Amino acid sequence: MSRTLRARLGSGLLGLALLLPAAVATPASAAAADFPSGYTGYHTYAEMVADVAAVVAAHPTIARRMSIGRSYQGRTIWAVKISDNVALDEDEPEVLFDGLTHSDEHMGLEMTLRIMHWLVDGYGTTTRITNIVDSREIWIILGVNPDGAEYDIAGGHFHFWRKNRQPNAGTSAIGTDVNRNFGYRWGGGGRTSSNPAAITYRGPYAFSTPEARNVRDFLASRVVNGRQQIRTAITFHEAGRLVMWPYGYTLANIPVDMTTDDHIALAIIGKHMAATSGYRPEQASDLYITSGTTRDYEYGKYRIFAYTFELSVVDYPDDALIPSETGRNKEAVLYLIERAWCPLSVLGATVRTARCGAFDDDLEVSRGWRANLDGTDTATVGAWQRGDPQPTTTSAGRKQPDTVPSGRYAFITGTAAGTSPNANDLDGGRTTTTSPAIDLPAAANQKLQFRWTFADDAAAVTGDELRVEVLDATTSTTTTVFLTHGTATQRNAGWHLASIDLAAFAGHSIQLRFSATDAGTNSLVEAGFDDVRVTRP
Question: What's the rounded Cα separation, in Å, for the pair 430 and 419?
């Protein structure tokens, strides 16, 4: 059954969405539509709404529907949450599926509906699905772009319409490609266009479409205590029978905004899913360069292990193919839900121990660290910054590193190099940054590990320091677990590994506070840390 509950009831967008009435009327301006003859097995918007309502009514303890916003024409964008304690926000890994971002890709809606039915119909009868629902929170955004989908079938024939139905100012052209409108690398190269008449029109600015904003705001609502709860995701498109992983904006396998571990794990998971579906696995840019996509946004901003599935062999497959084309992805879908506990676990036992514990932060994206949390910092220059450090070098050697242990970013006391050795180093006192809350399991053999650097010059004093403290909310105590002092000799930058036993804090709720102090009047002090993690018991 589910793990210990947290009082993490939804806030902001999600909290409001849970309070919305059970039904919202479709606006009169959005006329009803139906599929052409031979395709009536596909769901219209009205049929999708009815199906979701029936499922939620039949399974109220494990399924709940909510609005995540409205389309341009005012249609409600419905999402379903499936979990064993569906009314509560539990401390469980979360997964997201969405479909119908491109309105002519109707199999995407069939896929999201099929996933919903697999989970609710299998709960209590199939052990694997029961275990999944009991240990995960699964979110399904049924159809991202209903306006375009309804227009595509208006009048009983296909219009081959891909975009939304939002007018473009100053032109008669209608619609923006929602899957070119997301904010990560928006406006880049490849198959995206600045021409409002183009089928890949990216919009005048990122998130100019309400449909992309709805997904953006939903994702933001799943950030709890600074950390994104959704860990894996699939966005369903059509066609080609492909499984694609980030990135689409670049041909580089491991660009600066991706770590090697992530790249390897993304590919392993993607290839496994493709093998179970009979699909071809590839990095998204191997198909063609894209920018502003759902998948790249989810990974680039939040490090969600996000995939694009291209369903079917052709566009507009006959409705007789719906069962087989969706059914072939069942194993892949269930596998990805299971992998959500720790996607990096596919890298083997050593990585599982190091990277799948109660806390893992490579600092590549924002994950809830807070500077000067207690308001007592005194440093005037060189406060902690998460970023790409630039080298600071004196005649005695390198004081601030220009590389980090993994990826691109670390916390550094002033990332800029400055115009002289003492520019942008730590000055004037103490700077702190504090992690979000970490709930440690009541188990032995957990260690706090991180990489650190601390450099000073011959004017340093012993009061210059890098300190790490455990703030124990369970016992209301603060314990120093790491400390290095300044020395009156030249010490150059270099990354070192710290490993600290956390047995004294097992079962407690803690935070980590990193502080650096310049206590001298004319010394050069530079500090940094990266790759902070609590190892798995």
Answer: 23
Number of Cβ within a 10 Å radius of residue 258: 21
- The whole-number pLDDT of residue 419 equals 58
- Looking at the fold, whether 125 and 266 belong to one and the same domain comes out as yes
Secondary-structure percent of the chain, ordered helix, strand, coil, rounded to 5: 25, 25, 50
Q: Note whether 93 and 160 are same-domain residues.
A: yes
Number of structural domains (the chain) is 2
Residue 469 pairs in a beta bridge with 480, 513
Q: Verify that 246 and 371 share a domain, yes or no.
A: no
The confidence score (pLDDT) of residue 418 equals: 63
**321 and 389 both lie in a single domain:** no
- pLDDT for the residue 488: 83
- C-alpha distance from residue 266 to each of 259, 285, 349, 353 (Å): 11, 14, 17, 19
Q: What is the pLDDT of residues 206-233, one digit of tens each?
A: 999 999 999 999 999 999 999 999 999 9
d(CA 28, CA 242): 38
308, 323, 356: which is the final residue of a domain? 356
Residue 330 lies in a domain: yes
37: left (phi over 0), alpha (psi -120 to 50) or beta: beta
Task: Name the catalytic one among 94, 310, 364, 526.
Answer: 310
60 CB burial (10 A radius; 0-12, 13-18, 19+): exposed
- Using the 3D structure, point to which of 356, 375, 398 is the last residue of a domain: 356
- What is the pTM for the complete model shown? 0.92
Q: Are residues 167 and 23 in the same domain?
A: yes
pLDDT digits (tens, 9 = 90+) for 285-305: 999 999 999 999 999 999 999
pLDDT tens-digit profile of 49-65?
A: 999 999 999 999 999 99
> Is 465 an annotated catalytic residue?
no
**Same-domain pairing of 316 and 449:** no
The residues facing 215 across adjacent strands are none
